[in-house]
Amino acid sequence: MTEETSRQRLDELLDEIERAVLGKRDVLEAMVIALVGGGHVLIEDVPGVAKTLMARSLAAATDLSFGRIQFTPDLVPSDITGSALPEPGTHQLVFQPGPVFAHLVLGDEVNRAPPKTQAALLEAMEESQVTVDGVTHHLPDPFMVIATQNPIESDGTYPLPHAQLDRFMFRLRVGPLDAGDEVEILRQRIDRGQDEVDLAVVLDADSVASARKAAEQVGVDDDVLVYAAAVAAATREDPNVDLGVSTRAVVALIRAARARAVVRGRDFVVPDDVKILAPLTFAHRLVMSTEAWVRGVTGQDVIANCLEQVPVPESLTAADRAALSRD
């Protein structure tokens, strides 16, 4: 697909999902960027803001197979990955895939399972495979995890291990709707006569794979790479932070920036791609100091400060600026 065709198809995808999820195009665009960039998404927000609906709608509009895992305290790793079970009649052990064997996997309330169970996703998220009883099984391509968690309840929950947080490209917050969008949702629900919105398929798995290949062809100027690395370095020097972002995080940021360029119909990354996506990519990866936590300083605050400190490169060509005027 050309840059213009990619943008048109991805715009159509966002328009279709927005039929089910009104007023949150920025969040939906971030999810599509993660899909094109080969990343995973953690959506952290209160109940009732359409976190699950977003994941299901993305799967429906892309014709991707969809698996849902409801994380609970009694969930065990084999409930996610699958296990070898005796085959009737022969009693031979045959591997039965778990719900992680889908293109798009929703991990609902992922922080309600103990760390051992959460760890079952680590290999899947990093290598798109799972190993059961010493045998490696490859997951569908493309593969994406969208996990949700509720930030206002702590009873019966477990904090996500840092190694797992580091595997999420983005952490997103949905936020409340404005009154106008809320009224429109009510009006459309009454007119529709049912809860479900029937979405048309806009992209298939092959189209998603093509968009990912297009992202790999997006050019990145050295100045942009230096800028991204400088922002990452600033997080490691911030006095509010015990552990700054990893190299994996910087790689994820550039992957996301290239994917955003595809979504916006460009074949090059601009500094604004990095600046806009850095808070989504970096903030959840920071380990804040105890003093900062007591003072209420958040990862978002640190990233905002780092972006303010690090000068933005200004090395765009005339052609680049012309393309940005259409962005």
Could you characterize what this model shows?
Helices cover 47% and strands 14% of the residues. Strand 3 and strand 4 form a beta hairpin. The chain has two domains: 203 residues, 3-Layer(aba) Sandwich (Rossmann fold), CATH 3.40.50; 107 residues, Helicase, Ruva Protein, domain 3. With 327 residues, it is of the alpha/beta class. The strands form four sheets. Strands 2-5-8-1-9 form a five-stranded parallel sheet. A two-stranded antiparallel ribbon has the order 3-4. The chain has 15 helices and eleven strands. It starts with a helix and ends with a helix. Helix 2 crosses helix 11, helix 10 crosses helix 11 and helix 11 packs across helix 12.
